[in-house]
Amino acid sequence: MKSRTHSAINQDLCGTPVKIDKDYSLIRLDTTEAMIVDNHGLIHGGFIFGVADYAAMLAVNYPNVVLGSASVEFLQPIKIGETMHAEANVTQTQGKKRTVSVLVRVRHKEVFKGLFTCFVLKKHVLRE
């Protein structure tokens, strides 16, 4: 399935789609030096959240999908040189609201999990 949303996203910072199906996506993000916060090579949590958010958007996969809220847990630190895989599944649909479960792994280790509330809008959020 082809992506129908977030067409201008920077995949170097938010990940590259590996698989997109109905109500599902898998995204890969290789960490880089631009993402580290200290001399230990710790990756900033914003990049972990970013790949998870992008996975949620692609699981919904509508042109005008936006994030409304998220409840997340950072389970393990990530360091430079590691590759993240974010897997997202739409678990509930109610009108324009979608609930998406996201799990981020490094190798087989769970490093992040979250529940994202997304909304499918009739027009772009910035259009009047």
Describe the model.
With 128 residues, the protein is α+β, with helices and mostly antiparallel strands. It has a single domain, classed as Hotdog Thioesterase (Thiol Ester Dehydrase, Chain A), CATH 3.10.129. It has helices at 11-14, 45-60, and strands spanning 16-21, 24-30, 65-74, 83-94, 97-106, 109-120. The chain has a six-stranded antiparallel sheet with strand order 1-2-4-5-6-3. Strand 4 (83-94) and strand 5 form a beta hairpin. The radius of gyration is 14 Å and the shape is globular. The mean pLDDT is 97.
Relevant terms:
Thiol Ester Dehydrase, Chain A; single chain; 128 residues; 16% helix; 6-stranded antiparallel β-sheet; alpha+beta; 2 helices
How would you summarize this macromolecular structure in one to three sentences?
The protein is an alpha+beta fold and 128 residues long. The protein is 16% helix and 45% strand.
Which regions have little confidence, pLDDT < 50, spanning 5+ residues?
none
- The helix content, as a percent range, equals 10-25%
End-to-end Cα distance: 30 Å
- According to CATH, the fold-level topology is Thiol Ester Dehydrase, Chain A
| Gyration radius, rounded | 14 Å
Helix and strand pattern: HEEHEEEE
CATH superfamily: Hotdog Thioesterase
What structural class should be given to the helix and strand makeup?
alpha+beta
Number of strands: 6
The quaternary state of the protein chains shown equals single chain
Mean pLDDT: 97
Could you name the CATH class?
A: Alpha Beta
Question: Can you summarize the main beta sheet?
Answer: 6 strands, antiparallel
The CATH architecture name reads: Roll
Q: How would you sum up the global shape?
A: globular
Number of helices: 2
Beta-sheet strand percentage? 35-45%
Q: What count of structural domains?
A: 1
As laid out across the biggest beta sheet, the strand order is 1-2-4-5-6-3
